[in-house]
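Quick one, tokens below:
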């Protein structure tokens, strides 16, 4: 019995060693998960891009801005000259927070009168907005305490009669910081990528395993017709799933759709061109369905962690933020959340649209070229 068992174990090891791709992924995948979870799985947000509209331009207003920047939660990204410019920056995700210092702020502080400051927060990402909200309030309270101490030193108890700085916070797009409003649009991108990549890759590999793809090759079908015919059902299924998520999100989770649904569907089709290309590429590399599934997971994991699906990109190390620009899902999540939550149009999303067009052309071109050679 022991000899039979040893022989069986030996046979299994030989089969594993003879499949170097699966063996390599078996060892590489845990390391990828370790690094992604170790560096990307964090909600400790720092360096939130801040837009400043300083209408006062006095030493007092500059001291307030310095206090916010020294807190390490914010970085000065833009100095604007109007609230409309600030809104455009937040709509396009270039800034995630904004501070408006009204005219007369310095004279009010120096005249020992209460001064009001407005702090704007992008609520489309509840994690970033929650951190920014807490930091905005804490820094404002710290500045008020400092000014009160100065007043006490100069005039005694009279300084306690009023709060020097009143920081009024406004959360745009998702005032309640509801997580469902943030996650439901992201699920559209994740399901589109997973379905099209996994199903496309395994479908073509399954045809190759069964030997039926040779039957398709000898038919009058051209190579591009074969590709289109194989991919069309998964495109239709993906769109049905997308509509299903939107309807369920509105009816069950009360997620508001503030933007254009046709625009969202059109840009989703652009994203699908990239994910379908990835699926085709995998089908030219994998020899078995198991290899195709493992390769898909190898690509999907970085997409989940480095796209901003679960964890905010602002909380990641700089080098991981740079790597995230190579993840197509990153751009589609910005598009989906921008249309659904912010109600923005193509004018605010053109950088992401251009990026997806480049990805689609490069990936689909490479996939079609390799797939044609594999058929030959």
């Amino acid at each position: 019995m022991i000899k039979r068992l040893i022989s069986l174990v030996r046979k299994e090891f030989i089969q594993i060693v003879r499949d170097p791709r699966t063996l390599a992924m078996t060892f590489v995948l845990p390391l990828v998960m370790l690094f992604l979870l170790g560096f990307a799985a964090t909600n400790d947000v720092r360096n939130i891009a801040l837009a400043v509209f300083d209408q006062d331009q006095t030493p007092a207003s500059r001291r307030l801005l310095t206090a916010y920047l020294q807190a390490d939660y914010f970085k000065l990204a833009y100095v604007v000259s109007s609230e409309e410019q600030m809104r455009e920056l937040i709509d396009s995700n270039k800034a995630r927070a904004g501070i408006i210092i009204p005219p007369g702020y310095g004279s009010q502080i120096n005249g020992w009168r209460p001064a009001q400051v407005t702090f704007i927060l992008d609520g489309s990402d509840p994690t970033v907005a929650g951190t920014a909200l807490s930091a905005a309030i804490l820094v404002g309270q710290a500045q008020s305490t400092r000014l009160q101490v100065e007043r006490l030193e100069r005039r005694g108890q009279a300084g306690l009669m009023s709060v020097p700085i009143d920081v009024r916070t406004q959360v745009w797009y998702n005032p309640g910081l509801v997580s469902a409003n943030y996650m439901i649009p992201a699920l559209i991108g994740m399901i589109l990528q997973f379905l099209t990549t996994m199903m496309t890759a395994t479908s073509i590999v399954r045809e190759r395993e069964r030997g039926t793809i040779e039957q398709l090759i000898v038919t009058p079908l051209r190579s591009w017709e074969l590709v289109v015919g194989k991919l069309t059902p998964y495109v239709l299924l993906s769109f049905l799933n997308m509509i299903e998520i939107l309807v369920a999100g509105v009816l069950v989770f009360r997620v508001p759709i503030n933007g254009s649904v046709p625009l969202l569907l059109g840009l989703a089709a652009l994203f699908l061109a990239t994910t379908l290309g990835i699926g085709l590429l995998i089908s030219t590399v994998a020899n078995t369905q198991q290899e195709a599934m493992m390769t898909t997971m190898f690509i999907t994991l970085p997409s989940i962690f480095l796209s901003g699906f679960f964890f905010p990109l602002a909380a990641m190390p700089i080098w991981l933020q740079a790597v995230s620009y190579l993840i197509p899902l990153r751009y589609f999540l910005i598009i989906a959340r921008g249309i659904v939550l912010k109600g923005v149009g193509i004018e605010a999303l053109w950088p992401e649209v251009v990026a997806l067009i480049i990805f689609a052309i490069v990936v689909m071109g490479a996939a079609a070229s390799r797939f044609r050679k594999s058929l030959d």
